[in-house]
Amino acid sequence: MPKVRILNSKAGYNLAADYYASKEKYWDSFEKDKVLPMLGNLKSKKVLDVGAGTGRLALRMAKAEAEVTALDLSDEMLKKLKLKNQNLKLLTAIGDAENLAFADESFDIVVATFLIVHLKDLRGFFNEAYRVLKTGGLFLVTNINQRKAPAVKIKDGLVEIESYYHRPEAVVKLLEELAFSIKKNEFVKKGENWVNQIILASK
Ligand SMILES: C[S@@+](CC[C@H](N)C(=O)[O-])C[C@H]1O[C@@H](n2cnc3c(N)ncnc32)[C@H](O)[C@@H]1O
C-alpha cells in the first residue's frame, strides 16, 4: 500500500490544485444546479466566496454580474481561478475563513461551498460570516457527506487533506444559535443517500 501523507488545507490544496480543477464537473454533480438559483438576482450584489478554490462558483456569480471577492488559503487554487477569469469583475484574496479581513456589514451575500468539511469547529467561521454580512444578507453554505477524506493522487504520491464530518442537524442548530434564520435546508441525493446539504440562511 502506498503511504498517504496527511496535509492541512493550505499545503494540501496547493499540491492538489490541478487535480481539483480537473474534476469540476464531478463537484458540480453534488449540487445539481441548485446553488445559483437560491441566491436570486446577483446583479451588483457584493458577494464573498469563502474557500473559493478554482472559482467553480465564483466565476459563475461574476458572470451573473455580482461583484465577487474570492478568498482562499491556497494561492495555487486561486491561480487556477485567475487563469480562467475572462475580464470579469472579480477580486481575489488570500485569507482564512476564521479571520476575515473585511469590515463589518460589507457583503450582501457570503457563500462557502465544500469548505466546512475542512474546518474542525464551525463557530469561528460562522461568526465571521455573520459579522461581514449586511443585515438581511444571505449566507449559503454546503456540507458534503464525507466521513473519510479521499486520498488524492498528486505528482509524487498520495495526499489526504484534513477533513471533518459535520452532522447536518448540528450545522443548522449552530447557525440558529448564532442568530442566523434558516430559509432553506436542502439535500442532494445520489440513490437513497444524501451526498450534500445546501443551507441558505439570512442575517
Ligand atoms: C473543496 S475546495 C472547494 C472550492 C470551491 N468552493 C468549490 O466549491 O469548488 C475547498 C477550498 O477551501 C479552501 N480552504 C480550506 N480551509 C480554508 C480556510 N480556513 N480559509 C479559507 N479557505 C480555506 C481550500 O484551500 C480549498 O480551495
From TrEMBL:
GO molecular function, one term: S-adenosylmethionine-dependent methyltransferase activity
UniProt xrefs under InterPro entries: Methyltransf_11, SAM-dependent_MTases_sf
Residues passing through the membrane, by range: none
DNA-binding is among the record's keywords: no
Gene3D superfamilies: Vaccinia Virus protein VP39
GO BP annotation list: methylation
Domain Methyltransferase type: 48-140
Listed CDD domains: AdoMet_MTases
Keywords, comma-separated and alphabetical: Methyltransferase, Transferase
Protein's pathway: Lipid metabolism; Phospholipid metabolism
Stated name of the protein: Methyltransferase type 11 domain-containing protein
